[in-house]
């Protein structure tokens, strides 16, 4: 069905979710059906140029190797043997990175007949605007954004073909990172509904099944996951009075991001003894401020909750030099300020940090994470992951160009509904 919605009340034009930059830098999805796709893709011009240079450098390097000394050609990862090859060649990470995920039980959306379940879901969600109100005034994106509430209950989830596509995509990056001596991690930034499941509306009871994250990680536990969800859930349990996500924002708070980054540093330290010197900014206390409201502009009643948690650091994390490749300008900024995804691609240099380089492909969930990244690494190269325009960034070429010590692919959990490299979002419903 092709639904044409007003750009103030919906997120779709035809069957396509429309992504734009937000003026706040806090979300990478907004309502703007008037903007043609080529304009959105055009914002990636600096990154495309960077990738082209990387490909050129790689090509020259390959030519030199082939004409000056013998090389071993890596085994192909394409075709039907990609899953078994990935299992054989990709090592499991330490438990601090990701605990083994058991195969989830089947849910209501796995049944042979989902008519009643579908009818119950549709009766509640039909006609919804851009958001769903849960318990205690928690707001969540509706299906107008990446089938968000359907993903939350498992109604929309990855099928076998999509699971394989994700495994192939991640494995391809892994092998290039390994060949360059880099540690590679994949971070699925948890949706608010994955950490605050108890705040989903009461009507989801009886409709919940395994999510895409559970299915994908269970199918491929050998992939290099950094599963920060466990750290967030553990922190919430230990300190329920310090929010990690706001009622009125879909992103983790700056404090929530710091919990995720601390777990990432633990993982890197366990993976590689040369990375044990990566510092994380020491947190002295946490402030609770008025949260940036993503939903009020779309018609939700503004509640102005003081649930946006911001770390207060025990010491000043310092200053970094930033090269904004989009604008071809350089500047200095406070590490604690973080970097907006709208400014990517950028490179940063922190002379006070250990001499390690991080290459990260990310989205707006990486805004708050960037403080930890810039505090921990001498140099960072931060680019968009490209999932907001269905054009995943060619990370392999950038790895060959920059030769980083660490590579991180970070993306919001809602993007699992997409199939990397397909240019589409056809997830399985039920």
Explain what you see.
By secondary structure, this protein is α+β, with helices and mostly antiparallel strands. It has one domain. The protein is 31% helix and 17% strand. The strands form five sheets. It has a seven-stranded mixed sheet with strand order 7-15-13-14-12-10-11, sandwiched between helices. Strands 1-2-3 form a three-stranded antiparallel sheet, with no helix packed on it. The protein has a two-stranded antiparallel ribbon with strand order 4-5. Helix 9 crosses helix 10 (254-271) and helix 10 packs across helix 11. Residues 1-25, 30-43, 57-91 and 423-430 have low confidence and may be disordered. Pathway: Glycan biosynthesis; alginate biosynthesis. Its main location: periplasm. Residues 132-285 form the AlgX/AlgJ SGNH hydrolase-like domain. This is AlgX/AlgJ SGNH hydrolase-like domain-containing protein. It is found in: Periplasm.
Primary descriptors:
single chain, 430 residues, alpha+beta, seven-stranded mixed β-sheet, three-stranded antiparallel β-sheet, 12 helices, globular, disordered N terminus, disordered C terminus
């Amino acid at each position: 069905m092709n639904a044409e919605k007003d750009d103030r009340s919906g997120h779709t034009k035809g069957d396509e979710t429309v992504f734009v930059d937000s003026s706040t830098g806090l979300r990478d999805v907004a309502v703007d059906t008037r903007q043609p796709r080529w304009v959105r893709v055009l914002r990636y011009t600096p990154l495309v140029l960077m990738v082209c240079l990387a490909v050129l450098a790689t090509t020259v390097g390959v030519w030199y190797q082939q004409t000056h000394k013998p090389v071993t050609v890596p085994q192909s990862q394409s075709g039907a043997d990609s899953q078994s090859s990935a299992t054989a060649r990709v090592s499991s990470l330490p438990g601090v990175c990701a605990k083994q995920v058991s195969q989830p039980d089947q849910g209501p959306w796995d049944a042979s007949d989902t008519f009643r379940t579908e009818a119950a879901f549709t009766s509640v969600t039909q006609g919804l605007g851009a958001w769903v109100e849960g318990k205690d005034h928690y707001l969540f994106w509706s299906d107008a954004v990446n089938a968000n509430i359907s993903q939350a209950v498992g109604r929309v989830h990855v099928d076998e073909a999509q699971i394989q596509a994700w495994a192939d995509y991640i494995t391809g990056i892994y092998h290039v990172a390994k060949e360059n001596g880099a540690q590679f991690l994949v971070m699925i930034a948890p949706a608010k509904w994955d950490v605050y499941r108890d705040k989903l509306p009461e009507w989801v009871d009886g409709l919940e099944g395994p999510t895409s994250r559970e299915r994908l990680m269970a199918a491929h536990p050998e992939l290099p996951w950094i599963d920060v969800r466990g750290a967030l859930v553990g922190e919430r349990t230990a300190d329920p009075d310090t929010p990690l996500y706001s009622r009125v924002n879909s992103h983790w708070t700056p404090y929530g991001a710091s919990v995720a980054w601390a777990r990432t540093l633990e993982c890197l330290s366990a993976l590689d003894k040369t990375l044990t010197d990566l510092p994380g900014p020491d947190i002295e206390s946490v402030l609770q401020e008025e949260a940036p409201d993503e939903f009020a502009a779309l018609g939700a009643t503004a509640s102005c909750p003081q649930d946006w948690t911001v770390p207060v650091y025990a010491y000043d994390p310092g200053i970094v030099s930033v090269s904004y490749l989009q604008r071809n300008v350089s500047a200095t900024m406070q590490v604690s300020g973080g970097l907006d995804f709208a400014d990517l691609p950028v490179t940063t240099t922190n002379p006070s940090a250990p001499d390690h380089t991080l290459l990260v492909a990310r989205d707006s969930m990486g805004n708050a994470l960037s403080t930890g990244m810039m505090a921990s690494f001498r140099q960072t190269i931060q680019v968009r992951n490209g999932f907001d325009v269905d054009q995943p960034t060619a990370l392999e070429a950038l790895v060959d160009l920059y030769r980083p010590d660490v590579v991180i692919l970070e993306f919001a959990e809602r993007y699992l509904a997409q199939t990397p490299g397909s240019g589409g979002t056809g997830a399985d419903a039920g």
